[in-house]
Amino acid sequence: MFTEQAWIYKRAILSPSKKALIDSSSGKVWTYHTLWEQIKGWANYFESQGFEAGDRIAVLSQNRIELFAILFACGLKGLIYVPLNYRLSTNELQDILNNCSPVTIIYDENHIELSEFFPTYKTLLLSSATVSHNSDFHFNIDWKPDDPWLIIYTGGTTGSPKGAVLSFDNVNWNAINTIISWGLNDEDCTLNYMPMFHTGGLNALCIPILMAGGTVVTGKRFQAEEALKFLDIYKTTLSLFVPTMYQAMLETEYIKKSIFPTVKCFLSGGAPCPRAIYNRFEKMGILFKEGYGLTEAGPNNFFIDPLQARLKKGTVGKCMQFNEVKVINEYGKPCQSNEVGELYVSGRHVFKQYWNNEQETANTFEGKWLKTGDLAMFDEEGDFFIVGRKKEMIISGGENIYPIEIEQLLAEHPNVREAAVLGIEDDKWGECVTAFISYANSPQSEQELIAYCKATLGSYKVPKKIYFLEELPRTDVGKIDKKTLKEMALKAVK
Fold this sequence. Notes:
alpha/beta; Rossmann fold
């Protein structure tokens, strides 16, 4: 008897000859039948090694289609899939391994030295794995919806990474919710450069599209020109990129040449998107919108029609079919329209716990509600806007300042490529509004940009200090790294 946890088997029965996965680096193509054969092989390999339900399988690899076979095989055997961030240092990886205690680490050829750094762990090089893809597979695991399927470690920008435990229910309901709310079907195709150790690389579009019977194209190292060409080559319909990727895309020659005829809409996520990017896509006549999510919830939580997104730049729309959201003010009361507060999320896609971290788990919930730590507001029509991280809100001279408002304004300046704003500790003001700029053309002077801000913003919001950089530092998933920027500013004032 096949349970909802084995939906990938049902998909292989329904769509055996349909292309499921394409590796853009190697050109390798798997149909759903081939994917199922690969899943069976890995499931039998795990059984031959004596791994038992609940054991953790750690994976350290760049994006490749084999990871989906391992992921689904883990689910079918009751094992817990733990993707590791390959950009972390060995010390950082060791902290994660100490936390989750995997029975094995599967790694790719880019991490040949792995066994030297972690000699106490059983390891397997992906390219040398010998798994039988033609043997029978028996469903002998008694799954429960709340059983863990994945542990995805958060970025750790405000401390040590935490392992968010995602159950079958969490992953599957995020996919179901996305398919129904966004109208995905078996004709959809996505190009995924988001790293597959990140929830955006697995759960934003890849797993929902596989559940719907569509096609997932994987990419390794993001290159803007190449990515745009692949959108046309593979006839993609909906793909997710972060704002910094879009900024690079808009600077290519190829974006001036194609109308991207198969693309329904470009989707942005990971961070609030500058209005300047919206405006560029609108001038080209290309639909563009953004979404919102986090590792612990989804990551899909909202939907907006792309035409509506063009009218209301910056909104993520309304919550999806099978989840709830609300905004709570500093007094613990529900916010009114246009009042900023913390975003709370509830639904079967929301995780239940951090691995081996009861205190952080308790701090994250209020009853059934996940406290996201993100600031949001909604307008009179019920459309939501993400204002920024609660921990990034600047309090200067007793005034609350939301960095995104200043960042959006700076990004609209013709000589500004990207902007990041944060608060730096200050004896007089408590926090000093500080901006970091990468310039698109000739560098502007600090005084000119401050005057530009003063023409639009209240005086308390205007940056007191502006730093100019050729490139702003990035996190592992391509977001602007504000933690590094703050360290740079603190060193500069000493």
